[in-house]
């Protein structure tokens, strides 16, 4: 209970539902916040440690990253994995740009060895392509993918550059929490163009905008005829239709977390 209070003071949310099962090598686990991740602890093979995992949605909900930093430092915690992302909403540095960099050898390390690459092609179906560079087993993996198309807009130019870092053969410093853009730009020699000034607001708004369009299409396809009958055959007023069909709450696609601070 004391730890839960500290989590709430530091992250802005705490432990909610007990999962009644383990997680990874830990014997006990709880949902962290509003499905923002997991907290796990207990077990003979974990060396007396506990585990916290936070999703991107949870990261958006954190209000004071300085408090998170201090919490980790106070418990001598270490970051074992972190995902750093840059959202190019206009598609100026799109997947084709990433492919040109890769085929010209610009992702090669200082030792001159090019990382492995894999392209998942949607064959222009509108679902979005993904380029993988590197290997998770080696502790660093870059994903360049068509985020807007993945969310459901086949015409969206939105491209996401996302580096997944693990602490294998490297220490991930806590200051990465405050300087994600700098560490992302430094992950490969050819990524120095990445801006350190990113807008969480624009990213969240773009996600919600595409989500609304997708939901409206699904709603029209599934319930458009029902609404038409209610209005034109059963003589329901628009207010009566809304009252009959509305359910309080937010769809997952339209979740708008509060804007988090990037500095203490």
Question: Which tags fit this structure?
Answer:
264 residues; alpha+beta; 5-stranded antiparallel beta sheet; 4-stranded antiparallel beta sheet; 8 helices; 9 strands; 33% helix
In short:
The chain has about 260 residues and is an alpha+beta fold. It contains eight helices and nine strands.
Percentage of residues in DSSP E strands: 15-25%
Backbone CA Rg: 22 Å
- Globular, elongated, flat, extended or rod-shaped: what is the shape? flat
> What's the mean pLDDT score?
88
For the report, how would you describe the main beta sheet? 5 strands, antiparallel
Helix content: 25-40%
Order of helices and strands: HEEEEHHEHEEEHEHHH
Span of the ends, CA to CA? 26 Å
Order the strands across the largest sheet as they lie in space: 5-9-8-7-6
Total E-strand runs: 9
Tally of separate helices: 8
Kindly name the structural category.
alpha+beta
Low-confidence stretches: none
């Amino acid at each position: 209970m004391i730890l839960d209070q500290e989590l709430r003071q530091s992250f802005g949310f705490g432990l909610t539902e007990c999962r009644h099962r383990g997680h990874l090598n830990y014997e006990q686990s709880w949902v962290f916040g509003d499905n923002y991740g997991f907290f796990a602890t207990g077990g003979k093979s974990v060396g007396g440690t506990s585990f916290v995992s936070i999703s991107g949605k949870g990261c958006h909900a954190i209000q004071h990253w300085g408090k998170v930093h201090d919490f980790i430092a106070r418990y001598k915690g270490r970051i074992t994995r972190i995902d750093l992302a840059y959202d190019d909403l206009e598609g100026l540095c799109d997947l084709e740009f990433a492919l040109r960099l890769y085929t010209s050898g610009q992702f090669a390390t200082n030792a001159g060895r090019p990382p492995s690459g894999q392209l998942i092609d949607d064959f222009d179906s509108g679902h979005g392509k993904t380029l993988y560079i590197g290997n998770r087993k080696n502790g660093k993996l870059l994903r360049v993918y068509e985020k807007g198309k993945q969310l459901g807009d086949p015409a969206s130019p939105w491209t996401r550059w996302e580096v997944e870092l693990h602490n294998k053969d490297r220490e991930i410093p806590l200051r990465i929490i405050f300087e994600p853009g700098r560490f992302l730009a430094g992950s490969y020699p050819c990524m120095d163009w990445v801006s350190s000034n990113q807008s969480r607001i624009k990213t969240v708004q773009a996600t919600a905008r595409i989500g609304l369009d997708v939901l409206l299409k699904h709603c029209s396809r599934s319930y458009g005829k029902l609404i038409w009958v209610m209005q034109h055959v059963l003589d329901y007023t628009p207010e009566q239709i809304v009252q009959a069909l509305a359910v309080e709450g937010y769809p997952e696609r339209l979740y708008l977390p509060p804007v988090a601070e990037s500095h203490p």
